[in-house]
Amino acid sequence: MKILVVNCGSSSIKYQLFDAASTYELLVKGMADRIGLSDSCLYHHPAGKQEQRIERPFPDYRTALKAIFEALTDNKHGVIKHLDEIHAVGHRIVHGGSRLTASVLVDDKVIEQVRENTRFAPLHNPANLAGIEICRELLPGTPNIAVFDTAVHQTMPPKAFLYGLPIELYEKHGIRKYGFQGISHGYVAKEAARVMKKPFETLKIITCHLGNGSSITAFEKGKSIDTSMGLTPLEGVMMATRSGDIDPAIVPYLIELFGLGPKQVRDFLNKESGLQGLCGKSDMRDVMELADNGNPQARTAIEVFVYRVRKYIGAYAAALNGVDAIVFTAGIGQNSPYLREKILAGFDYLGLRIDRTSNQRNQTIFSAGNSKVCAMTIPTDEELVIATETYRIMSERKK
Description:
Blueprint: E1 2-8, E2 13-19, E3 25-33, E4 41-46, E5 52-55, H1 61-72, E6 86-93, E7 104-105, H2 108-116, H3 125-138, E8 144-148, H4 158-161, H5 167-173, H6 182-196, E9 204-210, E10 214-220, E11 223-227, H7 250-258, H8 262-271, H9 274-279, H10 284-292, H11 296-320, E12 325-329, H12 330-335, H13 337-344, H14 356-360, E13 374-377, H15 382-398
Parallel strand pairs: 1-6, 6-8, 9-12, 12-13
Antiparallel strand pairs: 1-2, 2-3, 3-4, 4-5, 7-8, 9-10, 10-11
Helix pairs in contact: 1-3, 10-11, 11-13
């Protein structure tokens, strides 16, 4: 069974094709990048071959997906002869809301529910939905499976997901913490247990997905019990362009001070804040380069980021009454030994000790041999999770 995984972002489409019949062999991966911009292109990388860079205009998602399908079946660089060889398409959906709590076969009702949840994820769900609708159009008869970032966090108890607001807002309007990046958090938490050779259900694990979007999750007995993102992916630690936690009174103050409307405030907090707002750069690599060159704003931005992440780890260590492993993943988490060391510097009281050489080498376990807490880096693999979930749903249909 060949499964195509599609992950539609705000200006890109990432894709991978797996052969689930041979232990999820990855046949090809790629990305249609800078959709809607003048310099858009397709990166297409068949397994064992050289990556192809195809420059062509992608004014919209439909054009980009058509180009992806053409690349998959290309005589020279393709990996299948016909699109009929794709048995199912798995899609990452950021917000499933209160009703879409597990992976599901897409039908018209599911599409409508995903569209309703756009109000909670206006930067993500529209792109995710476009991917589903276009695949249904271009691959008629091929099942589409939706896999939700919010699903892993459905195990949070009310004390973690409720806000201090009138209960009617939750009961009638679904206003609560949902959490995001759950596909990644769930994967690396289970991988951590595998590496430690201990049952997942016996461990207390804190996972740190640190990248353009960042969040922290606490796992206890194999379940997410709390996570930093909330009703939307804006809550939590400071991120590349997102503010993270702020005093709610700042919102009406901004409205009064600048005469902003709701969309302008949302864009301000989602696109003009975070690292970008503090120092003018959103990519942590650029921020660190500025800091190395003596830029005080960049140094402050790094300190704010580190401090916010450390606070969440500390809070979750308290909520868990101890922790067995702290796991880092995603672009910053996997690739910045410097930031990992700074983040974990304040946890001597937990008995956490870092092996600096292992950390510098980005080894999977970089805690010292006498550390009471295992510090780890584990590359996330959201596409593999989506593929396995898609295969599971398809297999259940056959029973």
